[in-house]
Design brief:
- By secondary structure, the protein is mainly alpha-helical.
- About 70% of the residues lie in helices and about 5% in strands.
- It has a two-stranded parallel ribbon with strand order 1-2.
- The two termini are about 15 Å apart.
- About 15% of the residues are buried.
Length: about 110
């Protein structure tokens, strides 16, 4: 989910598909966060942790990702780095928006 419109569409799908109450609650909580706090991307916890790790070290996560991209091409990544790499490649807009505007960590059960 990257914006309010997508959040609402996902909630509609969840409700139409009669998902469990737990799943409905997660989607509703994410939508409420959008409404209350503004339109920021919702990113997985492992990505948020990765970003925060490099901010705490005084590094720029975008620069670190570029280095990770080079390492991945050369086959020098761990399984964890590969998971981060693939998520960012698939969700580059959310990644950039999260660095620029902040983000919410995905609510999971």
């Amino acid at each position: 989910m990257s914006n309010l419109k997508e959040a609402i569409e996902e909630i509609e799908l969840v409700l139409l598909n009669n998902k469990s109450d737990d799943v409905k609650e997660v989607y509703l909580r994410n939508a409420i966060r959008f409404i209350e706090e503004g339109d920021k991307p919702i990113i997985p916890e492992f990505i948020a942790n990765w970003i925060e790790e490099f901010y705490l070290q005084g590094s720029n996560p975008l620069k670190v990702y570029n280095e990770l991209d080079n390492d991945f091409v050369n086959g020098w990544t761990t399984e964890e780095d590969a998971e981060v790499y693939h998520w960012i490649r698939k969700n580059s807009d959310d990644f950039i928006d999260s660095l620029r505007n902040g983000y919410y960590v995905e609510v999971t059960k």
